[in-house]
Amino acid sequence: MNATIDRAGRLVVPKPIREAANLRPGTQVRFRLADGHVEIEPVPMSVTLERSGELVVAVPTEGRPPVLTQTDVAEAISAIRAQTSSTRPE
Q1: Rounded Cα–Cα distance for residues 50 and 52 (Å)
Q2: Distance in angstroms (rounded) separating the CA atoms of residues 14 and 21
């Protein structure tokens, strides 16, 4: 896939690439020059691990609001339910 940098230096990342890399509006990215090519990667979110009842959860240290879609939440719930039901003794 090709893209063109405009006069202001902006670059549009093609939709299939954004979707595959889970890049959404507001995602910070890092640019790096490596072996003569440009690499772009999401900046990892800084988190701390905190206990919440029986669970350990990652809490952003930078105060960024979570960027979750309804699909993300539904998939997470389904995965947790599937894992829980598969680990229950019969």
Answers
A1: 6
A2: 11
